[in-house]
Write a structure and sequence with these properties.
Strand content: 15-25%
Distance between the termini: 26 Å
Shape: globular
Largest sheet: 6 strands, mixed
Strand order of the largest sheet: 1-2-6-3-7-17
Number of helices: 14
Oligomer: single chain
Radius of gyration: 23 Å
Bound molecules: ligand BES, manganese (II) ion
């Protein structure tokens, strides 16, 4: 180990307990972006990060207002002649329900079996915190960073980053960089180190089927009026076949087919359908015919109901025709599908298949473009070296099914290549009860980030 790497390790060792306490403090802030009652908590999370950045010596720290939750910006730009990296993560988290299924309350962090459990423990507070702590350690031990860093921490990612593009346009001048690093992805099955090189896009919408002003007695009216819940079921059934093919005309028109090379790359990953099924308690593999599980989830579009409600939900039976029924639905998209276009196609299809006798309202709740990042870019290869040097294993290149809308925006608005440098364990339960981060990933990942900046600083310019 070199002297500087040694000093970094000594510093990180010495600060282990303080670091975990700070990570927990961050996790205790219930910064749920989707729920209006948590708006103040989102602001508190932003202020927490701004405070941390100032304390460790990052400059020009700013909590910027948007039409959504605040953005945190800060930079350290004294590495003259070295590359500049825009570092992105998000402090907002998904709603924690169903609360009863958590072993401890979602915003009361718990360390168990080498994992940190809490909402946001992995997605994405861990990774934001890792960047802060890596920067702290480098500045504390060396007094300077090997590269210039611009931090951008967002509070609307779980809401499709609806206000970020505008802010990026308006602040293009101060966001100039050589590269963007997004730390909001994870490792491969078996917790194998990985660099994500593909993300799906998304189109998210709500369908409200409205019947009468109030519920009706189903004996008195049944058979003579449209039932909004039945109508919604009919609509949903018309969106996707049981074989996984989307039935919306035109849905696949812009999809770029998988190349032989793409398919070989998927096939080469160490993945067992049987183990996947067993781990998640799946009774059978399902999905679009002609594609493998990894292709289905990483490189093919799909459509899923995220939530559905209406009518009587209590115990026992109640005989009504519900006044209304509702569903939240999202499509995952691949290159070259565009969320606005898909929304329009799905909307037209829903209105076409909607049964008579009810009113159907469709609301666009946001979207994001898919993205592919370059595998052979020197900055990606530097990330590979940093991961190998710290995790002791060459990372796999993977294409993930999740979405990070800002990835495409960094490319299109700021013209930056993106490296997805993420550390979440694949069994982190993101968006689900008992979300957890393996602390070894968190700790080693901090070393990876520090190492990555050194790797980037030595690239020929
Ligand atoms: N960190 C995830 C994206 C992700 C998930 C990347 C899995 C790689 C693997 C991100 O926070 C997320 O959940 N995004 C949302 C986007 C949406 C709300 C616009 C998603 O994918 O559902
Ligand atoms: Mn995330
Ligand atoms: Mn998420």
């Amino acid at each position: 180990m070199t002297a500087t790497a040694d000093a970094l390790e000594t510093y990180l060792d010495a600060n282990h307990d303080r670091r975990l306490a700070s990570y927990e403090e961050f996790l205790r802030i219930p910064s749920v972006s989707a729920l209006p009652e948590h708006a103040d908590d989102c602001r508190r999370a932003a202020e927490f990060l701004a405070g941390e950045l100032r304390t460790i010596g990052v400059e020009h720290v700013d909590v910027a207002e948007t039409r959504g939750h605040p953005l945190v910006y800060g930079d350290w730009l004294k590495a003259e002649g070295a590359p500049t990296v825009l570092v992105y993560g998000h402090y907002d988290v998904q709603p924690p329900d169903p609360i009863d299924e958590w072993v401890k309350a979602p915003f009361e962090p718990l360390i168990r079996d080498g994992r940190m459990l809490a909402r946001g423990a992995a997605d994405d507070k861990a990774q934001v915190h890792m960047h802060v702590r890596a920067t702290e350690a480098i500045l504390a031990t060396r007094g300077r960073l090997p590269v210039n860093l611009k931090f951008l921490f967002e509070g609307d990612e779980e809401m499709s980053s609806a206000h970020l593009d505008q802010w990026l346009e308006e602040n293009r001048a101060r966001l100039g960089a050589d590269l963007a690093v997004i730390s909001d992805t994870g490792f491969f099955e078996g917790n194998l180190p990985a660099v994500t090189i593909g993300l799906r896009g998304i189109s998210y919408f709500q369908v409200d089927v409205l019947g009468t002003a109030v519920d009706l007695h189903s004996g008195v009216f049944g058979g003579a009026v449209q039932n909004p819940a039945n109508a919604l079921a009919h609509i949903i059934a018309a969106l996707k076949g049981t074989n996984g093919r989307i039935l919306v005309p035109g849905f696949y028109d812009d999809v770029v087919p998988l190349s032989d090379r793409d398919r070989e790359a998927f096939a080469a990953l160490p993945f067992e359908d049987e183990a996947y099924r067993a781990e998640h308690g799946l009774s059978a593999p399902v999905g679009e015919p002609g594609y493998t599980t990894l292709e289905r989830r990483g490189a093919r579009p799909t459509l899923d109901v995220n939530g559905i409600w209406g009518g009587f939900q209590g115990e026992g039976s109640k005989t009504i025709i519900p006044a209304s029924a509702h569903a939240k639905i999202s499509c995952r998209l691949v290159v070259n599908q565009r969320p606005e276009r898909i929304y329009e196609l799905v909307r037209e299809h829903i209105l076409r298949v909607a049964p008579e006798g009810c009113r159907v309202e469709i609301t666009n709740l946001g979207g994001g473009l898919p993205s592919l990042t370059p595998m052979d870019h020197p900055a990606t290869q530097a990330a590979v070296r940093a991961i190998e040097a710290t995790f002791g294993r060459q990372p796999l290149f993977i294409r993930e099914g999740g979405s990070i809308p800002v990835c495409a925006s960094f490319e299109s608005i700021l013209g930056l290549p993106v490296v997805l440098l993420g550390f979440a364990n694949p069994d982190c339960n993101a968006h689900a009860p008992n979300e957890s981060m393996i602390l070894a990933n968190y700790e080693t990942g901090i070393r990876t980030i520090a190492r990555y900046w050194d790797e980037l600083a030595t690239l020929p310019r």
